[in-house]
Write a structure and sequence with these properties.
By secondary structure, the protein is of the alpha/beta class. The strands form two sheets. It has a five-stranded mixed β-sheet with strand order 2-1-3-10-4, sandwiched between helices. Helix 5 links the parallel strand 6 and strand 7.
């Protein structure tokens, strides 16, 4: 009887431990990982819409175990702070551009030079080929999910001008290396984040922008910019990623 009692107790203990283990594993499997995704791009912009879809796709493919909350339009942190905020853990994922952290990515900034880009696809392929080949150590404090570039940057001005010579004296919104292009053309760079550009044009704080054509519609900057100088020779492509 004693042996039987000991045997029964051992079996009971094993069953209890097994049940606890299974419950523990089940709880671990059901634990939801919640992440915050900071993005400076306004929610209505196609890039922000795609970022939202990315978050939903991750949740779908993980059967709800990973949920990502997308904060568009700099609602979590301001555009210039996104990179540092990602490194510090204020946000888990950040979508930013190198122009907002001028000097921090000296190797990558070569891609932002006016290399005569004709499309965003061309520039995006270049930045990805560059990163794949060189894997710059300047990104060692983060994990790159994706990299991309916008279309060729052109001068868009509020007043009609006939040539690049007439950029002289104009206040042009620009960031990073594109500001040097403005200076080379005799203009005055105005460094402000994308989300603040509409108000700056409306209030007369700048006379134009050096950006891709898309922003005329997607950010409604075409409400003020009536002239575009198409010149691929000075076209840069601001690179970014998440």
């Amino acid at each position: 009887m004693r042996k039987g009692g000991v045997h029964f107790a051992a079996v009971s203990l094993f069953v209890m431990l097994s049940v606890l283990l299974v419950c523990g594993l089940a709880q671990a499997q059901e634990k939801v990982i919640r992440l915050k995704y900071a993005n400076f791009i306004p929610p209505a912009h196609k890039n922000a819409v795609l970022s939202e879809q990315f978050c939903k796709e991750i949740e779908k493919r993980t059967n709800g175990r990973v949920k990502i909350t997308h904060f568009g339009g700099s609602t979590l942190v301001s555009a210039p702070q996104i990179y540092d905020s990602t490194v510090k853990g204020i946000c888990d994922i950040g979508h930013s551009i190198q122009a907002y952290t001028a000097g921090r990515f000296p190797l990558t900034e070569v891609i932002d030079l006016p290399l005569g880009y004709t499309s965003g696809v061309q520039a995006t392929r270049l930045i990805n080929a560059f990163y794949k080949k060189f894997k710059p150590k300047e990104y060692d404090d983060i994990k790159i999910l994706y990299m991309h570039a916008h279309g060729p940057g052109y001068f868009h001005t509020k007043k009609v001008i006939a040539s690049l010579d007439e950029i002289k004296g104009l206040r042009i919104k620009s960031s990073g290396l594109s500001a040097k292009i403005v200076t080379a053309m005799g203009g005055a760079p105005v460094t402000i984040p994308i989300p603040e550009t509409y108000d700056a044009l409306q209030r007369g704080l700048c006379d134009g922008v050096l950006l891709n054509n898309d922003i005329l519609k997607s950010l409604r900057l075409g409400d003020f910019c009536r002239c575009t100088v198409l010149n691929s020779g000075i076209a840069s492509a601001c690179t970014g990623g998440g």
